[in-house]
Amino acid sequence: MTIPPVEELLKQIMLTAENVWGNRLSSKDIEKWLSNFDGLVFSSLDYERQLALYLLANFVYYNEREVRHLCRTLFSDYLHFMLLREGNGNSSDLKSKLDSIVTTSCFSPLGKPGESGALILYYFRQENDIATIQIPHLLQSPAFAKTMVYVDDVTISGDEAKNYLLVADKEKTNVLLTFVSTKEAIQALRAKDIQVISCIVLDERSRCFSDKATLYLDFRDSFDDCKTFAEEYGRKSMTYQENPVDPFGYKNGQYAFGFFYNTPDNTLPIFWADNKNWTPIMRRHGKTKEVTYREYPRFV
Amino acid sequence: MNTQDLFRNPFSDYNANSMDSKKILDYWCSPFALFKSRISERDIYQHDMPIVFMGGRGTGKTMFLKYFSYPVQCEAANQMSGGGHGNTLSFLKSNGGIGFYLRFDGPVLRSFEGKGLEPEKWDAIFTHYFELQVCKSYIEVILDLVNREQLSREGIEKEFVPRVAKKLGRLGKRVKLEDIFNTVEDALGDITSFREKIAFSKTEFVPSKPFVAQDLSFGIVEIAMETIPEFRNGIKFVILVDEYENYLKRQQVILNTLLKFVKPGITFRIGMRLEGFHTYDTISPKEFIKEGRDYTRFVFEDILVKDWRYREFLIRVAARRLETVPAFKERNLTDISRFLGKREDLQSEAADLVRGQESKTRHFDLLKHSELFKSKLDSDAIKKIQRIIAKPENPLLEVLNIIWVARGNEPEMTKKAMNEYLSGKVSSPLAKKYHLDYIDKYKLSLMILLASQYHKPKMYYSFNTFCFLSSGIVGTFIELCRRSFQYAYFEDPDTLINEGTIRSALQNRAARDLAHSELEMVNRIQNYGHNLYLFAKNLGNIFEKFQKDPLIRYPETNQFTVDASFGGDLELEDMFKTAIQWSIIQQKSYLQQQTPGGPKTDIYTLNRVFSPMYDLSYRTRGGYSERFDASYLKALMTQDGVRLRKKAPKRKTEPKESLQRRLI
User: Fold this and answer.
1) Residue A39 DSSP one-character state
2) Looking at CA atoms only, how far is residue A35 from chain B in angstroms?
3) Do residue B7 and residue A22 have CB atoms under 8 angstroms apart?
4) Is A18's CB within 8 Å of B489's CB?
5) CB atoms within 10 A of CB B395
């Protein structure tokens, strides 16, 4: 079976635009993005539009409401994990156990202020009524804290977390809460004595062009074309990109998801690449690591 | 400005079942102006006789009943007092009653039958269950009023609680109000557990204390009136039962009996689909409930569709929603008729349609259908007529001229009539007739016919059109708006947000989408879904044939009559009633003649929400109604692609020999 026709895909995307993207994506934005696909791969513009729209229809977008929900879920999963860790007790002392877990936990963003971890911690604090006293200054580990909880949105390879948590207090339990992670990241961090709790654990099924990808369960016939399409245009989209990544995303990520505040670079670059050769549909705000020359407007 | 609100579709929430009290209040629009003097808001609480509110899916029955329920009125009291609970009780007193909302899902009600247990036993268990549910809702409200410090806990627990405890068979001293609530909950839990077990094992239901009809539903009210001073002076307990059509026939017998024998201080307001009564029987074999004597009936569509104030009502309903989006409210963009346009512009639509065509005179081929010319009219003759009656800037007038000529009028006289009409010669009988045909009778039919000649669909847009398409069902109107806004946000957000308008093409797509999805929905109806789907499809195709008649002999026909006996076929009758219940067809509220001069009979119309699928008129006009006998009706519900069995009667035209001679 081949993928659905353009009209059906557009209708599906319109529904998603209203219900998930909060009507922030209009057909004009989509048309601008579709203009990137100029027949380079299959010479048929219509077919390329269809492939592009199919990938877009399968893009998973987390809006603010969902991010807040994920924050609540993470906190509850954290409490559950800690309760299990401390062993079964009398259910009547459940409340005191939970109180003890909460009051001896400190929460910190993974990464620097200004990075995504800090933004997530802001929502996390609001949604779970975390006292500000439980949020120490960066990399500080207050004496009352038995558990240091680090919060971030995504860990795919686990590299960033490993590097950042090199200085973590080894005397304490260190837990990383992320919305999204992978089995590989969880294993790598566990080896460093860092427990990872995630709402969504990605595996091969979530990667767009893995043999096990759920994206093509019903449309196996379109797999090869979609892959070639995303790869060729992924390459093209990176031609003029600062800090280019693989055609399927950072470290060959092959993912198709993003958040209302940013899109990870593990996601297919055809969605987020932004340069003179490419118009994005899901904007990515990359990190500038070094101070560079900048132009200022005439009136600051 | 909050950008999240800016892009929020104000018509997104339309299911009252999932709305909280605040949202119900936010969206509430009093429909009482539409009810004229038949009923007032106060009557909902104070009128002694039970009232039955009937209406199709989406007419607002749940919204209506929920509005009068205790939680929503509490919210209203809170809002009036600026957030405090200070005057909840006095607010309820000024209402004249307290509403207790009860709604059971179909599967729950259906779980009270079968599984090897005799129907009489299920009747007893259901009665026990219903009594407990009503009791629970009473206690919940009293408990809430105590917690809000509107009633004295001391007084309640001294007088009311001991008597209720005794009635419930709850033993022990110092029983609290919460204990009463828990006792009722436990008893309900026993029933749930029994219903779960009986499907798998032989189990007996032995409640610690069984309750029969009226025991608690009336009994607790009696105790409350006697022991709670605040309830003594005229506060009525109003039991609001929603989705009565979900109740099994035997369950309706039990509730009908309660309806018939309501006591002072208690009454019922029942919400149900059309044809929602499965029976009028009561437990007493010789008694049945009768409209007017035991209950008053209101049909939402009847009230809504007929009344010109329906439009005003829809404007207010939409305004309440538009006001919730600050971007619209701040710029005073709360009039839905501004977004949609007040009326469709048929003249422009026709001109646009013809302008886009290669051949702009194809509609003159309609002349070939005239019996006067019997297919003898060649292209030269058509051109000759065309030269006389042409009006290229207004193709609708051209189609009317064609119809006039095809019906036997001289082309020159037709032209004269048109010119006199256009120059505003009000005194001319010819101009008057032309005006009558064009403006009052045929304008919409002319557009439908014109579009069909070019094989193009008719457009559906404007507030006026959406009012008609909604067929008296507020939910359909909201859904049309929701889809229009959805398209506008996606396709043309700038015009929507900056100008406060939605392009007619986008409205048209919304109307067509809804028609398709409503038809698909019919297939999913549990009982007879596929039959009703075929019925709607066949009716649509038949009316399409009528409405595209090249000589407009059946303008806007979309109504029919049936053999009321259904040929004794009970299943057919049941299918037909289900079609009414789901508003696939709608019954006109009063008897009409099938044809001019014929006997009066019940008339039915296809729900106009389907009109865009078949390019039908969105209006219902009197005149011709097709009659379906039982066997034909059965075919319409069981076969695909059923055609008109007989040719519809033809309109008489006076042959004018001179005209024929001159043209042919």
Assistant:
1) S
2) 17
3) yes
4) yes
5) 27
A89 in reach of chain B (CB within 8 A) = no
Query: Do B489 and A27 lie within an 8 Å CB cutoff?
Result: no
Residues B304-319 pLDDT 10s: 566 678 888 999 999 9
Beta bridge partners of A175: A149, A195
Contacts with A64 from chain B: Cβ below 8 Å? 4
> What average pLDDT is seen over chain A?
91
Domain boundaries, chain A: 6-58+208-272, 64-203
d(CA A233, CA B492): 28
Distance CA(B153)–CA(B75), nearest Å, equals 22
Is the Cβ–Cβ distance between A268 and A277 less than 8 Å?
A: no
Determine the distance in angstroms separating the CA of B7 from the nearest CA of chain A, rounded to an integer: 5
In whole angstroms, give the CA distance from residue A233 to residue A268: 10
B608 Cβ contact list (under 8 Å, min separation 6): B468, B469, B470, B471, B558, B616, B618, B619, B620
Task: Report strand pairing: A257-259 vs B236-242.
Answer: unpaired
| Domain formed by A64-203, architecture | 3-Layer(aba) Sandwich (3.40)
Distance CA B545, CA A280 (A): 50
The DSSP symbol for A135 reads S
Residue B488 distance to chain A (closest CA, Å):
9
Q: Which residue of A has its CA nearest to B509?
A: A11
The span from the CA of B482 to the CA of B648, in Å, is 39
Largest Cα–Cα distance in chain B?
A: 106
**Sign of the Cα pseudo-torsion (B197, B198, B200, B202, in order):** positive
The alpha carbon of residue A32 is apart from the nearest alpha carbon of chain B, in Å, by 13
The tens digit of pLDDT for each residue in B558-577 reads 889 998 899 999 999 999 99
Return the structure tokens found at A261.
């505040």
Task: Give Cα B578 to chain centroid, integer Å.
Answer: 14
> Which long-range contacts (C-beta less than 8 Å, at least 24 apart) are formed by A99-104?
A101/A147, A103/A134, A103/A144, A104/A144, A104/A145, A104/A146, A104/A147
Give the start-to-end residue ranges of the domains of chain B: 36-306, 346-453, 525-664
Which of A22, A27, A64 is facing B491, going by the closest CB pair?
Answer: A27
What is the maximum span of chain A, computed from C-alpha positions, in angstroms? Answer: 69
* All residues at 6 or more sequence positions from A73 whose CB lies less than 8 Å from its CB, including other chains: A199
Amino acid sitting at position B24: I
pLDDT at B594: 58
DSSP string covering A200-267: EEE-GGGSTTSTT-GGGSS-GGGHHHHHHHHHHHHHHHHTT-SS---TTSGGG--B-EEESS---TTB
Question: Would you tell me how many other CB atoms lie within 10 Å of the CB of residue A73?
Answer: 17
Q: Rounded distance, CA A176 to CA A161, Å? A: 8
**Integer Cα distance of B368 and B378 in angstroms:** 8
Which residues are A149's β-sheet partners? A107, A175
What residue of A is the nearest CA neighbor of B10? A18
Helix axes B119-147, B249-260, angle to 10 degrees: 50
Residues in B touching A27 (Cβ below 8 Å): 490-491
Give the integer Cα–Cα distance in Å for B22 and B77.
Answer: 11
CB B212 within 8 A of CB B254: no
> And the tokens for B573?
């009758």
Which chain A residues touch B489 with a CB distance below 8 Å? 17-18, 23, 26
**CB-CB under 8 Å, B491 with A22:** no
Cα dihedral: B78, B79, B84, B90 (round 10): -50
More confident residue, B381 or A207: A207
Across the beta sheet with B236-242, the strand order is B97-103, B236-242, B266-272, B51-54, B296-299
Pairwise CB contact (< 8 Å): B12 & A18 = yes
pLDDT per position as a tens digit, A160-193 = 898 888 878 888 999 999 999 999 999 999 999 9
CB-CB neighbors (< 8 A) of B493 in chain A: 23, 26
What is the spatial distance between Cα B590 and Cα B597, in angstroms, rounded to a whole number?
16
